[in-house]
Amino acid sequence: MKDPYRVGDALPPLEIPVTRTLIVAGAIASRDYQDVHHDAELAREKGSPDIFMNILTTNGLVGRYITDHFGPTAVLRKVAIRLGVPNYPGDLLRLTGRITTVESGNHTLIEVAVAGDNRMGRHVTGKVTLALPHELHESHHARPL
After folding, report:
1. Once rounded to an integer, what is the mean pLDDT over residues 47-70?
2. CA nearest neighbour of 132 among 106, 97, 101, 99
3. Overall CATH class of domain 10-137
4. How large a percentage of the chain has pLDDT more than 90?
């Protein structure tokens, strides 16, 4: 069967409201207790206009974007991201992705270039490599593009 994923295919965007709760909960869940991720007053004392999202929360949101699209059989092999502008409460993070490589073998390996923007500009860029078992994605259990 022909692979349903092709280099150049775009993933539908995912928009995530950046709330104060998301920022604080993400920091706590990832055991990042830096005050700039939960205490607005201390964040301002350190020169930030407010608390801001930590990289581990952004990493998790990028992973969610990929697995939401490719389905529960997708296995993340590598997530490599770089942060740009911060995510503050009230922002809307818009994630987009484009398939950059598709390789067949024991599994189909797919690499997706990911970007995430908010009102200030580019929050995150990166690449995610995932594996899909042949027998599952060939039977269309993963969502097609």
Report:
1. 97
2. 106
3. alpha beta
4. 84
